[in-house]
Design a protein that fits this description.
The complex is a heterodimer of chains A (306) and B (365). With 306 residues, chain A is mainly alpha-helical. Chain A is built from 13 helices and no strands. Chain A has one domain (4-293): ABC transporter involved in vitamin B12 uptake, BtuC, CATH 1.10.3470. The relative contact order of chain A is 0.20. Helices cover 69% and strands 3% of the residues of chain B. Classes of the chains: A mainly alpha (306), B mainly alpha (365).
Chain lengths: 306, 365
Amino acid sequence: MASLQDIIVLTLAAGTPLVMAALGELVVEKAGVLNLGVEGMMLVGAVVAFIVAADTRSAWLGVAAGIAAGAALSFVFAVLTLSLLANQVAAGLALALFGVGLSAFVGKSYVNAVIAGLPPLAIPVLSDLPLVGRLVFGENPLVYVSLLLFAGVHWFLYRTRAGLTLRAVGEAPDSAHAIGLSVVRVRYAAVLFGGACAGLAGAFLAVAYTPMWAEGMSAGRGWIALALVVFATWKPWRVLLGAYLFGGVTLASFQAQAGGLALPSQVLSMLPYVATIVVLALISRDAAAIRRNAPASLGKPFHPDA
Amino acid sequence: MILVRLEARPTPSRVAAYASPFIAAGATIFIGGALFAALGMDPVEALYVFFVKPVATRYGIGELLLKAGPLMLCAVGLAAGYRANVWNIGAEGQLTMGAIFGGGLALAFPQSNSPFLLPAMIAAGAIGGMAWAAIPAWLRTRFNANEILVSLMLVYVASYMLSLLVNGAWRDPEGFNFPQSRMFGAAAMLPILVPDTRIHAGFLLALAAIGAGWLFMRKSHAGFEMRVAGLSADAARYAGISVPRTVWTGLLVGGGCAGVAGVLEAAGPIGQLLPTMSPGYGFAAIVVAFVGRLNPLGILGASLLMSLLYLGGESAQIALKLPSAVTGIFQGAFLFLLLAADVFIRYRVRIGRTPAIAPGIAAAE
């Protein structure tokens, strides 16, 4: 039987890719852009991180490459929706389909490759402390990165002038434009940040969480991240809460399978998806709250002439 | 200051709207050639292997139509919803549900030689797809839950359900433990239309769906309401059009069509239930719907094109040793390029400096 500490450590790890991807998407949506292509960017981030980690034997280089790949893919989306004013829903779907195909294509010859991966921290003495040693000092390094990311996003959005600008662009792009803010430039930056975060989430999956590459290995986490942003009513701390909640559900389904629960594995594997649907419905039920919290210009293209 | 800028057209350009899929197709082929060249292949030969060789024989043409059928069905159903801004992206799951419902009927009556079995299976497939699409419709209208995310999540749930069935209750006892059902009886199989091909009677149903889709969108009152709701939800409400009803219609039509596509795959080329019933037709149909301009006739053409991308991927796998996932790259790139080309529908490209308009005139614009 796993100890409470083990359960918490595993839950944090299972929730971490969701924290990363959902925080990135939160910033994108705060700027008024809806990028549905998180799943695609995550997969491309994962495959690129894995390939670079396998070829250079450096997991950290892999992570950096995954981040860059996610950002590069999001740039295509940014050009389409921000410069060419394409429909954001359609462009996001295209990005998701393209990312799935591209990652399967480039990753084909790496399906059975083995890498060392990024092991959890092991600080002498500290990580072995009873009760909290692994929890505080023995997480995967990228788990700490995700917490820094959370702190950074929260600080940026609510404590800096640039964050205020970003939120202004999302709430009222016309007013922001009128007072001389560059709506398009701010949105480009937000979309690239979101892509980098999705790439990081993918890199975490392929290099740290389960060091391997398999087609479609993100298994819908990119879509769950999108649902989390709604669940969180666009508030970073609720993203954190929601991500760990889902991490817990995923973990519970693994544990139940390993523990030989008398339910077929498929039923348990459905759990995270069913949970997403149920939670999404419960949160969205209060339409007024969603309208109040959602960035007012979410999904609407901005053109200064229009 | 800006050298290249976009200027809004007073009215959308019809010419650009029809030209853009062709521009996108041309650009996709060009980029595909560049990709092949970058991989160190002769681009002309690779493009020939991809786009011409698969359809150079009668069997090949049959395969083209065989794969275009489910794409047509799924896309025409999705387009009905997209017109009303109802974003069902879970056709893949609705297709799977259709296969489960229709296939389940075939497995329940293995000895039947009733002529009603096949029609009953198709009806069951439609019901399965509609039931699956009813979940996002209900959650959207009752709980305001985003149908994009719900319909997509249900793709995973449906695929696990099918896996559960073919690994458990419906597994072929003589199938050496492979996760697959028994083969369907002869009465549960669609007849072949053209000898020496795999093209089956289901293709006629797909064509009929195109026709029905055209009638629905262009001639029916419900189709008109869907289009109004898509253009402006406020205008629709003001005109007394029920937005929840357009959501239900959009999702049920999409789900029903995808469900039929699923059962036709089961009763056509596959002939049993497997853990995966489609190579992503439900997702590719999203591209087909957009490329076909949400117009049934356009969808007819676009699904042939998309089917060719599937065949090209298979052909490239055999002849060029490329992973067949290259199909997904082409599909995604095609949609990207289409969306890029679509900018010319609503905007004109102006090259040169921003004209110095007096602030008053600029504000009036």
